[in-house]
């Protein structure tokens, strides 16, 4: 994988920012400068605006123009990075200058310049040594003995030449030679405040040497603050005295920066994924509100693209492209906002706790509190609020921001960060946080055979993730290939009886969600005959454990035709015609008759649903079956367990109640109570613990009002007493 280099470009051919013209003009101006006095040019630009790249192109232009020039300018790149604040920067500069000019000393005029600079440098070194000794700065002498000795020896050799004399000689030689020397000092804004001060003192003292042009590159604001810090002066005015000709780097126009970002992003995506799903409308909002406000330089572009490339390569199959680019942008360029989002999932996503608390929240006050919280973190609040509202529709609604019109289903389908279960994946590299990966779901939708699909659904259900799986499938139902609709519907119907049917407070059970899913899938099948044949096939192959599920499904079709308990017709939900429904009824009755002849079905999970439909279709056979079954005491206990319904309160208490009204013609409450009391409690373990609790719940609620509810904990105490007493 190729990452975007942050290195400065070396030639105009590499320029992506349209800086070639500016660089060539500056290079030409330096080359044609014919003044005898020294000159100090300033190239000003923010960090990441391409100052070094411009300097490289300036040098290339000077070299190009002077290709056949005998007295071509000599370019000296002076790097102040290797000196400490205690060093003599001026002395180091001339030492460096002398060494580099020696490389060009094949000409007599250059030899003269080198000797003059050598004399001047030596005089400076002697002056430094003298100042050290005179000030009795023994610490420096002990710390740098060789350096001080060297400077002393060179200085003694040149002690006949005082500083003014050797300076005048250097100026004369420079004028006579007509040799132009261009000294480039880059990245001044990256030095310490003290080092920045020393650089400008250097330029101030030696910047008037003839035929020497200084090109200083820096961020104006950073340098001004540094000068103000160490000098306690107006940094801008100080700069004006030093820099004779300032050049502000041309601002990079947003359209050009946008083009560069999108081009690099497109190339990155192509290298990772062949066919990424992009919602163009949503992407436009995300780019405008969440990305473009933060991208100001080419360096910003490269940093964001590089980080995105690394993260997206790992997470692309489980995240939304749009959201990943947006979050990567602030991770790199606004990390405080990125960290705040990571800490506040409950505020941003549609979680149960969030939804409940939002009911009692004043939107105006809430918006103000969020605004102030972001402000304290140093985040641009207007941009930050817009960012959050774009990615998190629930949050947008909470603060009364514009509604971005994205449904929960759309958020789930596109794997957006606003989806509670997927949120954490955007902030870590552990895909195990996702209950069921999109990769596995896509395999279910597109590849798995029926048996493999049923096995997979069983595993997902056993792991406690069936609700998530169903929610994902409902969001993706329109993407299911037509030829696989029947397969998926069948698999859900075969396994639905195993899903929990216990609804939490204000929440829909997995069983009910599965009903909705099957209906959504069946609705996509265009031909009514296909839908009929699918139901028929499932009915023919279903076992006793699954019959309750199919009964519930058939009942919904009955209601849509205004039959059974249906008060009016609902044509939109009539999956099959009345003619075909009659056929299904006959097949269902035949199936129930066959099952009850060979098996006991009173203890199946969906007995209540299966029996109710059977009773409506073939009342005599259904009633006869139940009458015969309830003649056995043990079956009475199984009966009360199978019809029990789970309830859950808003404070998470739970228990069981018993809808007996329908069955009072078959058996009384008194009879059930007596049979439970008479039951040999030593045989309790023949029932599951859940069924034991159901039996205890019935006993404890016996004789109480219909509104009376027994908590599971209370029922469990009775179960334990039964076991202890063994009576």
Question: Could you explain how this protein is built, in words?
Answer:
The chain starts with 19 loop residues before the first helix and ends with a helix. Helix 4 crosses helix 6, helix 25 (466-475) runs parallel beside helix 27 (510-524) and helix 26 (485-495) runs parallel beside helix 28. The longest helix has 27 residues, at 108-134. Helix content is 60%, strand content 5%. With 727 residues, it is mostly helical. Mean pLDDT is 84; it is low at 131-160. The chain is built from 36 helices and seven strands. It is elongated and about 130 Å long. Strand 3, helix 8 and strand 4 (212-218) form a beta-alpha-beta unit. The strands form two sheets. The protein has a five-stranded parallel beta sheet with strand order 2-3-4-1-5, with helices on both faces. The protein folds into five domains: 19-73 and 180-251, 3-Layer(aba) Sandwich (Rossmann fold); 84-179, no CATH class; 254-433, no CATH class; 438-632; 635-725, no CATH class.
Helix-strand blueprint:
Layout lengths: L19 H13 L6 E6 L6 H15 L8 E4 L11 H14 L5 H27 L3 H6 L1 H13 L5 H15 L3 E5 L7 H14 L5 E7 L1 H12 L3 H8 L2 E4 L5 H19 L7 H12 L6 H18 L5 H13 L1 H9 L1 H4 L3 H7 L4 H14 L4 H11 L1 H6 L9 H6 L6 H4 L14 H9 L3 H13 L3 H10 L9 H11 L14 H15 L3 H14 L5 H14 L17 H21 L8 H11 L1 H11 L3 H11 L1 E4 L5 E4 L11 H10 L10 H13 L10 H14 L2
Parallel strand pairs: 1-4, 1-5, 2-3, 3-4
Antiparallel strand pairs: 6-7
């Amino acid at each position: 994988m190729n990452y975007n280099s942050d290195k400065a470009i070396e030639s105009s051919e590499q320029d992506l920012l349209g800086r070639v013209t500016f660089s060539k003009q500056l290079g030409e101006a330096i080359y044609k400068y014919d003044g005898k006095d020294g000159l100090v040019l300033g190239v000003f630009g923010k960090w990441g605006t391409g100052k070094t790249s411009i300097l490289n192109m300036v040098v290339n232009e000077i070299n190009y123009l002077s290709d056949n020039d005998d007295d071509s300018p000599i370019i000296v790149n002076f790097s102040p990075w290797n000196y400490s604040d205690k060093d003599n920067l001026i002395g180091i500069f001339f030492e460096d200058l002398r060494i580099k000019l020696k490389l060009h000393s094949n000409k007599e005029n250059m030899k003269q310049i080198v000797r003059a600079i050598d004399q001047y440098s030596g005089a400076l070194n002697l002056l430094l040594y003298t100042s050290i000794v005179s000030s009795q700065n023994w610490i420096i002498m002990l710390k740098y003995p060789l350096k001080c000795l060297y400077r002393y020896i060179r200085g003694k050799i040149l002690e006949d030449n005082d500083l003014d004399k050797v300076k005048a000689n250097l100026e004369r030689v420079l004028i006579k030679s007509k040799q132009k020397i261009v000294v480039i000092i880059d990245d001044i804004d990256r030095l310490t405040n003290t080092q920045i001060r020393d650089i400008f003192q250097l330029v101030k003292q030696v910047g008037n040497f003839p035929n020497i042009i200084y090109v200083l590159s820096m961020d104006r604001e950073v340098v001004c603050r540094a000068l103000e810090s160490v000098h306690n002066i107006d940094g801008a005015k100080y700069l004006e005295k030093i820099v004779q000709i300032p050049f502000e780097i041309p601002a990079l126009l947003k359209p050009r920066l946008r083009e560069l970002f999108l081009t690099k992003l497109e190339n990155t995506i192509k290298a990772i994924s062949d066919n990424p799903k992009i919602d163009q409308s949503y992407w436009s909002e995300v780019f405008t509100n969440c990305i473009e406000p933060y991208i100001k330089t080419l360096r910003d572009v490269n940093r964001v693209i590089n980080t995105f490339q690394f993260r997206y390569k790992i997470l692309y199959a489980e995240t939304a492209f749009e959201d990943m680019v947006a979050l990567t942008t602030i991770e790199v360029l606004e990390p405080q906002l990125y960290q705040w989002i990571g800490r506040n999932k409950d505020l941003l996503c549609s979680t149960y706790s969030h939804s409940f608390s939002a009911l009692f929240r004043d939107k105006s006050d809430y918006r103000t509190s969020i605004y102030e919280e972001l402000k304290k973190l140093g985040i641009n609040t207007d941009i930050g609020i817009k960012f959050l509202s774009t990615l998190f529709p629930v949050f947008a609604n909470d603060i009364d921001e514009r509604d971005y019109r994205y449904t929960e289903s759309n958020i789930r389908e596109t794997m957006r960060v606003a989806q509670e279960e997927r949120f954490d994946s955007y902030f870590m590299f552990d895909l195990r946080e996702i209950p069921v990966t999109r990769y596995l779901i896509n395999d279910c939708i597109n590849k798995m055979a029926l048996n493999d699909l049923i096995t997979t659904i069983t595993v997902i259900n056993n792991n406690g993730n069936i609700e998530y799986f169903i929610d994902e499938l409902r969001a993706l139902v329109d993407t299911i290939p037509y030829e696989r609709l029947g397969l998926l519907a069948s698999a859900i119907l075969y396994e639905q009886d195993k899903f929990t049917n216990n609804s939490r407070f204000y929440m829909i059970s997995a069983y009910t969600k599965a009903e909705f899913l099957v209906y959504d899938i069946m609705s996509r099948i265009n031909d009514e005959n296909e839908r009929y044949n699918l139901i028929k096939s499932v009915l023919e192959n279903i076992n006793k454990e699954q019959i309750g599920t199919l009964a519930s499904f058939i009942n919904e079709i009955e209601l849509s035709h205004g039959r059974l308990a249906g008060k009016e017709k609902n044509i939109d939900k009539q999956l099959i015609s009345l003619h075909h429904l009659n056929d299904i009824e006959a097949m269902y009755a035949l199936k129930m008759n066959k099952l009850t002849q060979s098996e006991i079905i009173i203890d199946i999970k969906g007995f209540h649903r299966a029996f109710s439909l059977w009773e409506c279709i073939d009342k005599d056979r259904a009633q006869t079956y139940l009458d015969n079954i309830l003649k056995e005491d043990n079956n009475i206990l199984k009966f009360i367990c199978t019809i029990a319904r789970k309830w859950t309160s808003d404070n998470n208490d739970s228990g069981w109640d018993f809808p007996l009204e329908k069955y009072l013609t078959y058996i009384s409450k008194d009879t059930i109570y007596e049979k439970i009391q008479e039951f040999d409690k030593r045989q309790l373990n023949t029932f599951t613990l859940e069924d034991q609790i159901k039996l205890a719940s019935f006993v404890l609620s016996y004789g109480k009002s219909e509104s009376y509810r027994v908590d599971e904990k209370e029922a469990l105490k009775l179960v334990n007493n039964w076991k202890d007493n063994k009576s």
